[in-house]
Amino acid sequence: MRIYLIRHGQTDWNIQGKIQGSHDIPLNETGLMQAKLLAAGMESRPVKKIFSSTLKRAMATAEALAGRQEAEIIPMPRLMEVEFGLWEGLTWKEIEESYPNEYGHWVMDPSHAAPPGGESQKEIFERCKTAVNEIIRQTGGREDIAVVSHGATLACLVSVMVGPDEEEESIIVENASITTVHYSPLTEIFTVLEKNDISHLTTS
Length: 204
Fold this sequence. Notes:
The protein is of the alpha/beta class.
């Protein structure tokens, strides 16, 4: 089984460096084009099911892919982006300046500390673990599928799959990128085959 982990296309908040979190920010024009290029690039990676975050930016990306492959979209709220509470809509610099104590605590102990009104790393991990288990249950671990989600959530999903030794920061860095993970139902082992493929976004 191959699992194609896909980050949504670009939004205006991505350009502005704002934390989106649970805010339902739509794709911008570039993001919509990226979704189309992604869908074309996925033609060599056929899937019948697309598990997607329910936020607009992810669903629009999933819909572009589904339209090209006639795949079924399965909305999954657990794939939504990490909730950053009061920090959403701010840049990291603004967060550090406006919430110095909370930010410092979060940097030092992200597993237990959380942004005001947001999720801790431990909570995110448990949510992603449940999502992975549900995806394997629904597919039997025997069919190639796509998962459309968000940067921080996708990094956590990879950590759930392959273990904490994997450097999360190196997994998802670009909008509309594809990270490919292989899963064996016999051994129940996940293996990262390719990280952050954006070759499909190059037009010439």
